[in-house]
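Changelog note: in this version the structure field was regenerated for every chain. One regenerated record is shown below for reference.
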Amino acid sequence: MHGAGHLLEVFFLLLAAQFMGWLFRRFNQPAVIGEVLAGVLVGPALLGLAHEGEILEFMAELGAIFLLFMVGLETRLRDILAVGREAFLVAVLGVAFPFVGGYFFGLAIGFDQLPSLFLGTALVATSVGITARVLQELGVLSRAYSRIILGAAVIDDVLGLIVLAVVNGVAQSGTLELGTALRITLLSVVFVGSAVLLVPLVRRIPFHALPVGSPFGFALLVGIGLASLAATIGLAPIVGAFLAGMLLAEVREELHLEEPVQAIESFLAPIFFAMVGVRLELSALASASILLYGSMVLLIALLGKLLGGFLGALSQGFRRAVVVGVGMAPRGEVGLIVAALGLAAGAVNEEEYALVLFMVVGTTLLAPLFLRPSITWAERAPEPKASQEPLDEARG
């Protein structure tokens, strides 16, 4: 397709995403749902005005990167560390419950062991971009429950990657590849740990003396650089982008970073969410068995994360623990990647892939619908003192 064709696709995606996002906000619903449905509207499933392709896929990935970079800019490390125990528990339980549930459900409906393992693995990873957009819209990113969700999402991604490495190794070689899992674990811990250790040093950097056009230019280098490094070692690029934002959060006011980053994010993030809808194949979800079994997998996916998040964050109080559980529920591209790897390896068939597709679409649309009212409900309860202190320090 020539350049004009690509520009038209971007135009139609943005037009639909902006209008649908505005429409959903008018009805007091998360704009992200409208943006996803905008992709369905202009995508191959309906109007056929936008299609999957390298350029749109790359722009969508940049959208996810800048969304999490922006979220990272609004999140200070000390706030994440203040809820570190809860974030770790939420991540571990939120990986264990869906994986076990998906695996045993697969066996119960007649899947072989390997497809059941892939089904469990596809239920593991949270798509934090969807939750982050809702938290951002509602202005609650500074709340303790938001910090738990964001911290857990980073740990969740590392754990999910380890599970995927092990299961994919079994599919490829028929044996358990512990060496691969250990290598990925070590690289992931070193990557995340190094970013955390660099936070105290950020304020010592002479930004205005750096050989770059502007502090914002340097911020872009850090954001894209850490996203690229994360992708190189096998982590999701959004993990690197979030950590980059968290590094620069220490100097965001002095360097005036929020406004320019938000300008780029407001352009690219809707494309990311709209592309979720563009990828949707309505025909794959049409059969009665897919609707039945897909609904059951969707229920397992929602309950697994809800239960894991709730139990892990119970120290924050009942209502906020519910918010954490709901916030961890959306799945996204990681689930589809897992299913696609299984399909390529011959470990799953088209029907089993469609179950994962149904689950991803369902959690993407349902979780934001439940997240907004659950946050409103939680905000009516007083904030626990333990979670207020870091926030008060940040304001001071």
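Spot check on this record: Residues 386-396 have pLDDT under 50 and may be disordered. The first helix runs from residue 3 to 26.
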